[in-house]
Amino acid sequence: MEWNIFSQETRDVIIKATGLTKRYGDFVAVDGVDFEVYRGECVGFLGPNGAGKTTTVRMMYCFLPPTSGNLSIAGFSVQADDREIKCVVGVAPQEDNLDVDFSVVENLVVYARYFGISKVDALKRADEQLAFFQLQEKRDMSVEALSTDMKRRLIFARALLNNPQVLLLDEPTTGLDPQVRHLVWDAIRQLKKLQVTIILTTHYMDEAEILCDRIIIVDHGKIIEDGKPKELIKRYIGETVLELDYNEALIPIIKETFSDARVEVVGELMQVFTPKPYGVFESFLHEHRIQNFTIRKANLEDVFLKLTGRGLREVD
Amino acid sequence: MTEVNIRKSPAKFSIPKLSSNVWKVWQRNADVFRKTIGVNFLPSMLEPVLYLFAFGFGLGGFIPEINGVSYINFIAPALVAISLMHGSFLDCTYGSFVRMYYQKTFDAIVATPISLEEVVAGELLWGATRGVINSSLVLVVIAISGLFTAQPLITAPYFLLIPLIAFFGGLMFSAIAMCFTAIAPNIDFFNYPMFLLITPMLFLSGTFFPLSSLPQTAQAIALTVLPLTHIVNLTRSTLTGSTETLLSLNTQTLIPLGIIWIIIIAAIFFLLSINLMKKRLIH
Ligand SMILES: Nc1ncnc2c1ncn2[C@@H]1O[C@H](COP(=O)(O)OP(=O)(O)OP(=O)(O)O)[C@@H](O)[C@H]1O
Ligand SMILES: [Mg+2]
Questions:
Q1: CB pair distance less than 8 Å for B112 and A101
Q2: What is the ipTM, given to two decimal places?
Q3: Is B194 a member of any domain?
Q4: Are residues A63 and B107, on separate chains, in Cβ contact within 8 Å?
Q5: Ligand nearest, relative to CA of residue A30
Q6: Is this prediction's pTM over 0.80?
Q7: How does pLDDT run across A222-236, given as a tens digit for each residue?
Q8: Which of A20, A26, A49, B95 could share a disulfide with A69, CB 3.0–4.6 Å?
């Protein structure tokens, strides 16, 4: 505990939000949130559609002015020092805003020029990024000729041109196939090694669990949980999950056998959550001759569904 | 915790803070223009050439002299003025709207150290540049055509001032155009300024017939609210040495009047367009 306090204080706060609020007319998209992000940390913002993730990210790169509250990035206030902030922040927005009037490499070079990077440096960096994101063959193609995943990769590459201290990635892997997703993960891991602070929004819980040092779960514009993935899983779900076909008769038996377990019914499926390791279910399954089951480790998706509810949300 | 002032309404009217970043936006548009020069160039050239041939060489043969010059000599300076108006106005309406609304170019740029104010200012400077490019080309066409007319079409040495006139005139038309772009709900909206402002100006600003042949009230209205009138006065006097006499004002009065009028209107609409754009895009 003492060690924890010590380490928190010596760490360098690079993003700090206090009472941060964003209203669109009467609608409150971000509702008085407080959070801190430390230098070199990778923080995942998770939340259902419309939770306010993109709105929060947009305030971080001064695209949207907060309605009230404070937000500072690298010691600069978004309300007053937008130019300083935008120099040190890299942004991969959720929507595609590549410049369709230019080819792939021109997109990078022109974007680098907006940062005041010289043409020679810009070309060098552009070609490095194209190589890393495996886009060299598309170098001179029009961006309109790119597939969705190539566009996502190019948007990511573009966000790195100014060697950002803070990288904002709004759903960088949505719609990507597994190969490309791994390429993007690889990029994120390399950037973490370089101590780049990363804000990542995603709907993929496995991705957040693997990549993020810390998770902030938002819903209806409010932060509902903030913590390390492992700790959240342990706190809310436990260790192991048993999934089996719905059978009402089994429920009291399970509750009796596993006093510290929690049972949840989802449609035709029953889930049993326990803080105990794998083996705990063995004799029970054997005794009741249950054939159709899965035992797995508890994961972030379990936490997410527990905290945000299972009902379907509005989809944009 | 230090107290930070929140701009209560971010879109409050203000004087824009501009830096050399404006030129980076200008360069972006210039790069695109260079890439697409074939499709950009010919259509904007074709129109003045057609006017010159149809009205100047064709119709002009049936028309007596106007103010002591043949019809083609009368309309040639107006074609320079029209081309700069079209170049600037079209770029900052349709062109800017497409970049802002469909291509999300502005959104991408404002994520870099360039502000929205600078983006809009860069667009306006580029619009003005389109005016310079278009009018310079028309000037060349006119100079060459002049070899085949009874009198050369350019008779005064001041024609070298055309790019300067085109820049400030173009800036004025760009800024007016950008105000429409800032309030346009969709791209079809531009039919209104095109039909209600640009087309009437095309004919009622001393372009294809002398404004002095209209009643004094009409001349006064043209000088007060039709920006093209002043541009035509400037191009006509730089190409031929004198303007028409309007409301019994001669060249010596109309030229300084025109310059002041253009600078004031350009400045007002420059500030207004940037503020309207901020109002539209920053919520
Ligand atoms: N410009 C706007 N005007 C009005 N409402 C808006 C605007 N932008 C976003 N909203 C609303 O604000 C809420 C939060 O939107 P936001 O885009 O931040 O959500 P999100 O968490 O990023 O969702 P998603 O996972 O779908 O990307 C949504 O209900 C959305 O409809
Ligand atoms: Mg979003």
A1: no
A2: 0.89
A3: yes
A4: yes
A5: 1
A6: yes
A7: 999 999 999 999 998
A8: A20
